[in-house]
Amino acid sequence: MQKKEKIVNPEYLTCPIRNVLAKFGDKWSLLVLYHLYVAENGVMRFNELRRNMTDCSQKMLSQTLKNLESNNLVNRKLYPEVPPRVEYSLTDIGKSLMPSLDGLIKWAKENFNNVVTA
Fold it and tell me: HTH hxlR-type domain: which residues (predicted)?
């Protein structure tokens, strides 16, 4: 028996919301972006992020940072020292996202009880 091939609506493939959110719409990416945004000098090292996100495993944080870097939202700067020092910061594109993320955070705070306890 031959498996039926699922036909994907072409509009889904070009939908900006679907395609953009697929790049960083997971909870860890949004939290990393937020922590970099509110960091004192806009720069954080891996272990600083890890301390702020204790429920995120080291492996998941590493994967998330790589994903955000590959999607041009986060800069990774490696200093040639021993031991090596790596710092993360938002790119200009990442910074341009933050007003929208701020709006989402504000909305989440205002509607937390209605959404989370529903």
Answer: 15-116
| Confidence (pLDDT) at 16 | 80
| DSSP for 4-50, written as a single string | PPPPPPHHHHH-HHHHHHHHH-SHHHHHHHHHHHHSTTSEEEHHHHH
CA distance to 38, 78, 89, per residue, from 82 (Å): 28, 11, 21
Q: Which fold has domain 10-116?
A: Arc Repressor Mutant, subunit A (1.10.10)
**Quick check: 44 and 35 in contact, CB under 8 A?**
yes
Q: What does each C-alpha distance from 102 to 8, 23, 49, 59, 85 come to in angstroms?
A: 33, 18, 19, 27, 30
pLDDT number for residue 23: 81
* Dihedral of the alpha carbons of 5, 6, 12, 14, in degrees to the nearest 10: 0
CA distance 94 to 24: 11
Ordered mean pLDDT values, 10 residues apiece, the chain (118 residues): 71 79 87 95 96 96 97 95 93 95 91 85
Residue 28 and residue 9: Cα distance in Å, rounded?
Answer: 29
